[in-house]
Write a structure and sequence with these properties.
- This protein is α+β, with helices and mostly antiparallel strands and 318 residues long.
- The protein contains eleven helices and ten strands.
- The chain is elongated, with a radius of gyration of 35 Å.
- The two termini are 63 Å apart.
């Protein structure tokens, strides 16, 4: 076989699951009777084997060493299959690894469900900054951590007088936290570029963001030197929970979210910042609320009504 053919054989073989691999190897080994018997031998050879490799609809007989090398398997694997063939089996038995029931320390389903219910009892919210990049990611209180949650879990087990097997170690609790949920703690501290975060930025991307900063700087300076232009930037601050408590009971309760929209106004002889704040029971944080804040600022700031040209810079959140 050429190198290309060997790679094709190996690639197709490892594309199969473990049971399909065993079946292929099983059918590739042919049992036959020994052609020669030595006289006077203490122990006679009872079986002889041929090894075939299928490629391009053609069966090629190879030696055992080549057979093992082509499929990258061990001699022990071949010997085991030979014993099954010699025993008269028509097919190899299914793989039973990981399917036995002799695991005394395995976490039972009721314990796993109890852990999952406890983790689910903590209120989680979408992040203001990452909801576009990872829509399924949610964040727990920044005052929490896995060790703290595990400690609260043990306290709950004690309070509810649960069986000793429910009082799992922190590593088990962490396993279900990492594998059953898409949770994190706290919030990203600042806006980030998803392209740069993925490490896929190129020269064009770098030039684009540099050009954007230059355009923003030009608009700001233009507003400072013109009588008819006003320059405004909008940014919605990350949400803050109210009230901010560190008691264990507060971790299980739904907290109210506080929103803060910062508006920076730049014009000739004007450079000021206005904050619009509200809570989630008053309004949401959609585009209607953002422009309601902008409208309110234009009503309060009388100097804005004298301008006939408005430039607004904002991120995707606002």
């Amino acid at each position: 076989f050429t190198i290309v053919e060997r790679e094709a054989i190996l690639t197709s073989f490892y594309a199969l699951d473990i049971n399909a691999k065993n079946c292929l190897l099983f059918k590739s080994i042919i049992l036959s009777q020994p052609k020669r018997m030595r006289t006077g031998a203490v122990k006679h050879k009872t079986a002889s084997y041929k090894y075939t490799v299928a490629y391009n609809a053609k069966q090629t007989i190879v030696c055992k060493r080549a057979f093992v090398s082509l499929y990258q398997i061990s001699n022990k694997k071949v010997d085991l299959l030979q014993s099954k063939i010699k025993a008269g089996l028509a097919a190899p038995p299914p793989d039973r690894r990981g399917k036995h029931n002799n695991r005394p320390n395995k976490t039972t389903e009721d314990v796993a469900a109890y852990i999952i219910r406890h983790i689910s009892s903590f209120p989680a919210e979408e992040s203001h900054y990452s909801r576009n990049c990872n829509i399924h990611k949610k964040y727990l209180s920044p005052l929490l951590s896995v060790p703290i949650m595990h400690k609260l879990y043990l306290e709950k087990c004690h309070a509810e007088e649960m069986n000793e097997r429910f009082r799992v170690k922190e590593c088990t609790y962490r396993f279900y936290f990492n594998n059953e949920f898409n949770l994190s703690f706290g919030y990203p501290k600042s806006d980030t570029c998803s392209t740069c975060d993925k490490g896929s930025s190129n020269e064009e991307h770098i030039e684009n963001y540099k050009a954007a900063f230059e355009a923003q700087k030009y608009d700001r300076e233009q507003a400072r030197n013109s009588d008819n232009i006003v320059y405004i930037t909008l940014d919605l601050q990350q949400t803050m929970p109210l009230p901010r408590l560190s008691t264990s009971k507060a971790f299980y309760l739904r907290q109210m979210w506080f929103y803060n929209l910062g508006i920076h106004i730049v014009a000739k002889n004007i450079d000021q910042t206005v904050f619009c704040t509200w809570t989630e029971d008053q309004a949401s944080r959609g585009s209607s609320e953002i422009f309601s804040c902008l409208l309110r600022v234009s009503e309060v700031e009388a100097s804005l009504k004298e301008k006939d040209h408005l430039i607004i810079w904002t991120d995707s959140c606002a």
